[in-house]
Amino acid sequence: MKKIIHAPDAPAAIGPYSQSVEINNTLYISGQIPIDPVTGKMVEGDIKDQTRQVLKNIKAILRAAGYSFEQVVKSTCMLSDMSDFKAMNEVYAEFYTEHYPARAAFAVRELPLSALIEIETIAVK
Description:
It is a single chain. It contains 2 helices and 6 strands, in the order E-E-E-H-E-H-E-E. By secondary structure, it is α+β, with helices and mostly antiparallel strands. The chain has a single domain (3-124), classed as CATH 3.30.1330.40. A 6-stranded mixed β-sheet has the order 1-2-3-6-4-5, with helices on one face. Strand 2 and strand 3 form a beta hairpin.
């Protein structure tokens, strides 16, 4: 049975979708952009600042659903500029320190609210 998960300490969805959905012990987290859940606004700063906020948002959703970064099996990172890949990767490594998930990273033409990065995540218990 499908269960909608909403983490109060992560930004609310900005469209007609759920923050995350759990089914069959698998959590699907919608693409997260660097919105500060307290202010509801995009964090200012460079790709490192934005990546850090995105991963904090993902952490809050994982925690609300009873998961952790260790249970993440797949991440998809969308960047507005591939020249930010190295800097994004440095911050990503702060959150994923071992048992790395499978991952795809690619450039897209434009992200919501002109974000520099968006990450979607799948975790399994």
